[in-house]
Amino acid sequence: MEMLILYIGFLLAAYAVIGNDVIQTLGTFLTSNDKTHWLILWAFASTILTVTLFYGWYFYNGDVSYNRLDKIPLPETLRWWHLLAPLTLLIITRLGIPVSTTFMILSVFSSQQIIEKMIIKSVYGYGLSVISAFLLYIIIAKRFESKKSIAKVNEAKQKKYWIFAQWVSTAFLWSQWLIQDFANIFVFLPRRLSIYEFIGSLLAILAIMAYLFKNRGGKIQEIVNQKVNTRNIRSATIIDFCYGMILFLYGNYNAIPMSTTWTFIGILAGREIAINYMLNKKQLKNSYKLIAKDFAKVNIGLAVSIFVVYIIQLIKEF
């Protein structure tokens, strides 16, 4: 029974985490390459995922989480209530609400001290993302995000170097996101995977990705589509590079897991404010409303995860 819970938990967590978080790294990639067949995009992303997963497994002695689960041990006995977190996340994902999978999944297995550290790191990450994106787009908005500059890129049929740059930036961002979020996906499995567990889990994840790519990211993709110019390949490239650099520099500062969702929403928020401030001040009010709405959604995940942990603690007492 315990082994069944272990594998069901992994599959639920993998589907829910990838389904909820795919917009963070591949949302702009899918949007700006909407005319490219999904199999090509899937093969590209799958190759990077396979290499990143293998690197962690091989060089970290079977630990595909890159040591992010060192202080979050697998419980000696898994019970049915451990499935409440991925099930809740799965339901929220189907509703199209972007929540922090880190809080939702890892909080069930973490001590209060670790949860507090995850929240602090995530809050700082959100603030850093807002400020970084705002300052960056204050500088580049007129040159890269104005209607005139966008038209020039479109007239040139999105020059090959921008297409190349976007695929490179996506590869960089995707690998950095995976390093952060493998912990959420693999928290139900042993901290050191055998070769068979490694291959089996990889095949399961690739199958889940194929389904999501065929459906172009699902309902949560709407969050990316609502933002200014995200369908433009040049804009998508800049977003991906900015996000990837924050995960690389800040996310790898220590091995404490963090919410990549909060970081992503922060980047979109800072970008949206800067673009409208520089190019269309009349839309600033609407931008603030949209940003507040997105921020409220990600906080739902934190509130729900705390509630799920509370419920599990009550169940344990009976």
Automatic annotation (TrEMBL):
Annotated TM spans: 40-60, 81-106, 118-140, 161-179, 194-213, 233-250, 256-274, 295-315
Keywords annotated in UniProt: Membrane, Transmembrane, Transmembrane helix
Protein name: Phosphate/sulfate permease
